[in-house]
Amino acid sequence: MRAHPGTTRRNLLASSIALVLLTAAAPAAQGVTSGHRAPGGSLVLIGGGLKENNAEVYGEIIERAGGPTARIGVITAASVPESQDPHAGDPDLCSNSACNGAYYADLFKRHGAADAQWIPLDIDHVADADSDAVVAQVESMTGFFFGGGDQYRYVTTLLRGDRHTDSKVLAAIRAKLAHGAVVAGSSAGAQIASGPDMVSGGESYESLRDGSAPGYFDDPTRLGYLPEGGFGFLRSGLVDTHTGAYGREGRALRLASDTGHDRVYALEENTALVVDHPGGNREHMTVLGPHGVAVLDLRDARAHDSANGWSLRRARYSYLTDGDQYDARTWTPQVAPGKQRLTPSSTAPVPVNADVFHSAADPDGTAYSFRTTARALASTRAQNSATATTFETGPRFTVTFTKARGFAAFTGDGTGAQTLTALRIDIASQ
């Protein structure tokens, strides 16, 4: 959603870059390169904030693109073009499509790709998405990376007309994906993989208060979505990004409820959701990185709108961390080998939190407060439920976390909860 910052590029890399199951019937998770590897292509979707030294994620993209023979096409059309960047001439401050394209191409080569090239597309050069020369460049690649910015720029650059038909370049990328290429993306580059009802903006509190509307709006707090969606590479759920950093669980739940979706993949920063068999009914995921991916399950959820405001009951929240897998067809998390089921030992109460979605209006807000409350509840035996509220009032929303039937927590070090499965979430207004 938010543009990739024009961070200093002087020191790109200072040094060389060099499941326990929930159901007994399922096989143990074996990592990303297990037998779940698709005969076709795959996706690597990152929640934004991808760090230069994240060798695990960059390496996974490169490996899936052919390892030492990988050729990565970098698409940064979600960035502003050079004509709109006041720092276009400064390599340390620039943050435009060409500058960001060169930045990522250099990073992929430093991480071991045989070649990485910017695909020259942006909102000032929309016609190039139907250029035979650019199509030929795409067809020479074995993998693709979509950078961050504003996903609506990808829509206007690579899709055509009200029906969102593919440009020639997007059709070529889609064909490469079907025949084995990897398609990766960070922030807006992950969002654009969505199918129908792709989010186009919004903050959690305003989303819960006002609901969603189709379209793209100048107001960044307004929950908007595009009914036609993005590229449709991922089909089993909606996608949201920067989840913990900007507290987007609220907007994700509201959008899914409003549009009739029963699942959201909420991606955290510098962490990837690797998807095998994308676009079909056998999508299988693996989490890679230091944070996690939340799976929001609304199959049993019920929303209600009244004079007091909007409410949601019986949603489920699973938080998957590095090495955990998820089978979208069976709705089954598979916890990575080496993690054990957590037996709560703490008797401390869950800390009170009055800013559950990390409001931008709260100068003392704490990032990751939604996840922090969930993990604190999982780690204590003093209580089976906990509440946290929004910073804003008029109305104030209360989120209730409950260890309902099916809930489990897992740890890798025996001390605190890391992975969580099937924690019940209720949201009420007051």
From TrEMBL:
InterPro entries on file: Class_I_gatase-like (IPR029062), Peptidase_S51 (IPR005320), TAT_signal (IPR006311)
Family: Belongs to the peptidase S51 family.
EC number: 3.4.15.6
Pfam families: Peptidase_S51
Keywords annotated in UniProt: Carboxypeptidase, Hydrolase, Protease, Serine protease, Signal
Domain of life: Bacteria
CDD domains xrefs: GAT1_cyanophycinase
Coiled coil spans: none
GO molecular function: carboxypeptidase activity; peptidyl-dipeptidase activity
Name of protein: Cyanophycinase
Secretion signal, residue range per the UniProt entry: 1-28
